[in-house]
């Protein structure tokens, strides 16, 4: 028994959790948020997300993204409410009797300002909070999961796309650096001062530099074996294309069937299922073309299972409440919102990662000294 | 093992052959040095081996490339990856991932090696290159020498039979270059990997080379033992130059060999004291630029700390120090673009930092590390017109005969440097600063640059040149300032400074003792006897 416990404890030694686990958890919480407009439940959800992020995030660069998303969420709530004030038109208890701005006859159904009611304000607030909470969940996933490692866990068939994204992410800061360097350099010589000419003076060296860099990178990747493929027989390739086509049709019809209420439910389920199976088959077959392996892949252990499961449970709870406890999930704006034990417990399950997830790996060595040119160019622009 | 047969390469839009009917066999476990002046086709030859020429360059390639008798000339670079490892001129540009460990594993991932093998080889390579402590570091935070070693390591993990290196030490300070060369020799001696290395700064590499392949510029290739090839090669290190002039045979390739030969030659040992007793005491009262207490910080880390330097008119001062010691920052601070926390800079009674860009240009000219950043027009004539009325005149006095209609990017390294320098000199600044101008220049171009700098001092300008090249410093500098960690550790006359720090001593002074700098001096002294 004790040896079993010790083995379990090994999985909780400091390391980075599998990024997919974090995304499953975050999407589960986002799904819960999308199933309700109850402000109390949404606030509780925001609290849960914040606690988990605070407990589990590391010290890498992307971990700082959470604050950015929090700001965005707040912005969404405020905009939502402001729009309600501007385009009021909900009858109820008037809080502030604003004058209505007269609009011409042909603008039917739109009213600018006018008496502001408590109901309009609340409806805007609830709606904004729902969207804000979803955004916050995505932000949490971004802060917790290493984006580059996430791309590494893509199926092999999508490997090329993943590499392109990684390269783009790396090249962008280099481009900014090159812009700053050229700007400083161009000030060292006389030359055109006109607006258009000056732009050219500065764009030409930057673009030349960018082009040279990408050629060097392409050459570097090619000489190191990027793009090696195993030769596949023509028959397999044909099967792959057919599977991909079937999956596309299946998924499209399935999604249409779900959104269109008049289509029978069995059709939606069958088509979606068929589409998913075909897609999985196609990706696996296409992946055989790629012969590469992964160095030190992220392993899926029990903390990952707990984290991902907690997300699934939260989503299921949200779905159940939206179906069976409609007044709780979508409270009326005329009365105070209420909560039930099940609804609250459903959100609180989302706290599981704070207990189960291992501490993040010790932060990478931070830059001891940037290259001198970087420093100069930064200063030069300031 | 690898055999080039009748390789002829013609670049696009040209009828001249860069390589013409080249035959070359690379043996198992040898270090082959590819040498020759700039533009003679060294990189092209390496590119043919790696498969990048003509795939990435365009142009027409004829002939055959054989690996153990099988032709691989049509094999794309990615399929050669496990056999031929290639490291380009700028290691940073070739990095695909962002940490050391992932970069080392990248090539193996592409080859589809099993995870256990990958893990083992990454550990072995980290130890082999002595970079185990850096395994989790971000590649962009490493120093130049470390980056170069990681780049070499990242091709070694796939256990290639040949490692092809294009100028691995050209951007490195003397000590970092020694480290990289030590790594390369370890590969050849311990692992038996064949290494093909292109380099035009020969002084450090020649002692390690088994054979030299010399490209002279007309497309032909001569291969042979170092001593044979160097007898009449157009590019030779100072030691060989010395041996040739004094008629030594066989030619000395290492400092040790030369020192043993030099025993027979009578020469005054202490050149430093000789010079001090001499009459040549420079007039240091004419100061073009004076600065004191310069301190520059970045995020509370000092990059420069309390640096005070003075640049006298009519003298060339060399600025030396490790990569990242703060040389570039010092130049930009003196020029005024880099903001300083404390200290003062004064040129002709004014502070460049307080002026607008145009005012700064008239006081201090700065040639940045990437001279191409200055150029943006399509022809040399347009550049000269944009640069000011006297630019063309200055350019002709620096390097005569650059055609008007040529594209600046098609110029040779030396010509491009001269064009950029002419643009800067058109404002006629009394102080000229140069940041690493010798990168990518061969001996002839470096010699021409030295002449240009001498010419500037005759015109009464003060010149400060940041460089890693000790031989260039010995040739051109009057004074030397050594920076370490943002502080001046030694400064003074070039003879006394190089006498104090062996790392910055040129080959001649290693052989004949402190104070001796140039081959010419030794030859003259010997002939006088």
TrEMBL record, chain A:
It is found in: Membrane. Pfam families: CbiQ (PF02361). It comes from the Bacteria. Keywords: Membrane, Transmembrane, Transmembrane helix. It is a multi-pass membrane protein. Its main location: membrane. InterPro entries: ABC/ECF_trnsptr_transmembrane. The chain crosses the membrane at residues 23-56, 68-90, 242-259, 265-285, 305-322, 328-352. This is Cobalt ABC transporter permease. It comes from Nocardioides luteus. The lineage of its organism: Bacteria, Bacillati, Actinomycetota, Actinomycetes, Propionibacteriales.
From TrEMBL, chain B:
Pfam families: ABC_tran (PF00005). Keywords: ATP-binding, Nucleotide-binding, Transport. InterPro entries: AAA+_ATPase (IPR003593), ABC_transporter-like_ATP-bd (IPR003439), ABC_transporter-like_CS (IPR017871), ABC_transpr_CbiO/EcfA_su (IPR015856), ECF_ABC_transporter_ATP-bd (IPR050095), P-loop_NTPase (IPR027417). One of its GO terms (molecular function) is ATP binding. It comes from the Bacteria. Residues 2-242, 289-510 form the ABC transporter domain. Gene3D superfamilies: P-loop containing nucleotide triphosphate hydrolases. The keyword Cell cycle does not apply. Belongs to the ABC transporter superfamily. This is Cobalt ABC transporter ATP-binding protein.
């Amino acid at each position: 028994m004790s040896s079993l416990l010790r083995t379990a404890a090994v999985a909780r030694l400091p390391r980075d959790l599998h990024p997919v686990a974090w995304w499953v958890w975050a999407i589960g919480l986002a799904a819960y948020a999308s199933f309700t407009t109850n402000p109390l439940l949404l606030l509780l959800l925001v609290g849960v997300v914040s606690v988990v992020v605070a407990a589990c995030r590391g010290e890498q660069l992307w971990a700082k993204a959470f604050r950015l998303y929090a700001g965005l969420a707040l912005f969404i709530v405020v905009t939502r409410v402001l729009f309600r004030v501007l385009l009021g038109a909900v009858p109820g208890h008037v809080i502030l009797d604003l004058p209505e701005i007269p609009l011409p006859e042909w603008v039917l159904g739109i009213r600018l300002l006018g008496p502001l009611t408590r109901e309009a304000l609340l409806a805007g607030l609830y709606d904004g909070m729902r969207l804000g909470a979803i955004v916050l969940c995505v932000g949490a996933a971004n802060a917790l999961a290493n984006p580059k490692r996430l791309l590494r866990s893509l199926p092999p068939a999508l490997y090329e796309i993943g590499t392109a994204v990684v390269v783009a992410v790396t090249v962008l800061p280099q481009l900014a650096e090159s812009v700053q360097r050229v700007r400083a350099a161009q000030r060292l010589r006389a030359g055109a001062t006109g607006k258009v000419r000056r732009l050219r003076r500065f764009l030409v060296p930057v673009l030349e530099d960018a082009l040279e860099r990408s050629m060097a990178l392409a050459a570097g990747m090619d000489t190191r074996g990027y793009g090696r493929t195993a030769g596949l027989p023509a028959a397999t390739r044909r099967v792959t294309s057919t599977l991909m086509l079937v999956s596309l049709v299946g998924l499209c019809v399935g999604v249409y069937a779900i959104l269109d209420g008049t289509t029978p439910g069995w059709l939606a389920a069958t088509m979606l299922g068929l589409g998913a199976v075909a897609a999985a088959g196609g990706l696996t077959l296409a992946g055989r073309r790629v012969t590469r392996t992964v160095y030190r892949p992220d392993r899926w252990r029990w903390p990952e299972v707990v984290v991902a499961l907690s997300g699934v449970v939260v989503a299921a709870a949200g779905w159940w409440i939206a179906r069976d406890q409609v007044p709780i999930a979508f409270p009326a704006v005329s009365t105070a919102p209420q909560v039930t034990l099940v609804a609250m417990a459903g959100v609180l399950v989302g706290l599981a990662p704070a207990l189960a997830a291992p501490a993040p790996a010790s932060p990478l060595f931070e830059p001891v000294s940037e290259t001198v040119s970087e420093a100069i160019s930064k200063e030069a622009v300031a | 093992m690898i055999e080039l047969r009748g390789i002829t390469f013609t670049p696009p839009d040209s009828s001249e052959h860069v390589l013409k009917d080249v035959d070359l066999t690379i043996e198992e476990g040898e270090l082959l040095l590819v040498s020759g002046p700039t533009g003679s086709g060294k990189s092209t030859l390496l590119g043919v081996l790696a498969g990048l020429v003509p795939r990435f360059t365009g142009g027409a390639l004829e002939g055959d490339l054989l690996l153990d008798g099988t032709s691989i000339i049509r094999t794309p670079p990615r399929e050669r990856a496990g056999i031929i490892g290639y490291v380009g001129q700028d290691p940073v540009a070739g990095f695909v991932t962002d940490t050391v460990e992932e970069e080392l594993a990248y090539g193996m991932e592409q080859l589809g090696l099993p995870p256990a093998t990958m893990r083992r080889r990454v550990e072995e390579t980290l130890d082999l290159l002595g970079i185990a402590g850096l395994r989790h570091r971000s590649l962009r935070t490493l120093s130049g020498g470390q980056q170069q070693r990681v780049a070499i390591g990242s091709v070694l993990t796939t256990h290639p039979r040949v490692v092809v290196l294009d100028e691995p030490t050209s951007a490195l300070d003397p000590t970092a270059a020694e480290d990289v060369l030590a790594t390369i020799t370890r590969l050849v001696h311990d692992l038996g990997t064949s290494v093909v290395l292109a380099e035009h700064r020969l002084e450090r590499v020649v002692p390690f080379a088994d054979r030299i392949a010399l490209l002279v510029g007309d497309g032909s290739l001569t291969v042979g033992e170092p001593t044979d090839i160097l007898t009449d090669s157009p590019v030779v290190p100072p030691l060989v130059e010395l041996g040739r002039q004094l008629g030594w045979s066989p030619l000395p390739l290492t400092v040790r060999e030369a020192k043993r030969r030099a025993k027979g030659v009578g020469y005054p040992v202490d050149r430093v004291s000789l010079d001090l007793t001499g009459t040549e005491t420079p007039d240091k009262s004419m100061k073009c630029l004076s600065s004191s207490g310069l301190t520059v910080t970045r995020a509370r880390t000092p990059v420069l700390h309390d640096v005070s330097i003075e640049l006298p008119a009519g003298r060339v001062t060399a600025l030396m120090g490790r990569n990242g010691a703060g040389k570039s920052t010092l130049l930009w601070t003196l020029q005024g673009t880099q903001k300083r926390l404390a200290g003062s800079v004064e040129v002709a009674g004014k502070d460049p930092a307080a002026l607008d860009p145009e005012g700064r240009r008239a006081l201090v000219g700065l040639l940045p590390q990437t001279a191409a950043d200055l150029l943006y027009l399509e022809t040399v004539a347009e550049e000269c017109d944009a640069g000011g009325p006297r630019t063309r005149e200055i350019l002709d006095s620096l390097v005569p005969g650059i055609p008007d209609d040529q594209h600046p990017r098609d110029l040779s390294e030396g010509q491009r440097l001269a064009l950029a320098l002419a643009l800067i000199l058109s404002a006629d600044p009394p102080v000229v600063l140069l940041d690493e101008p010798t990168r990518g220049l061969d001996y002839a171009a470096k010699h021409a640059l030295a002449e240009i700098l001498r010419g500037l001092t005759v015109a009464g300008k003060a010149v400060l040149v940041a460089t890693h090249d000790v031989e260039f410093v010995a040739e051109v500098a009057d004074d030397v300032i050594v920076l370490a960690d943002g502080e001046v550790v030694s400064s003074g006359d070039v003879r006394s400074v190089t006498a104090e720090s062996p790392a910055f001593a040129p080959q001649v002074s290693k052989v004949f003792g402190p104070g001796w700098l140039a081959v010419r001096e030794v030859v003259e002294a010997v002939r006088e006897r």
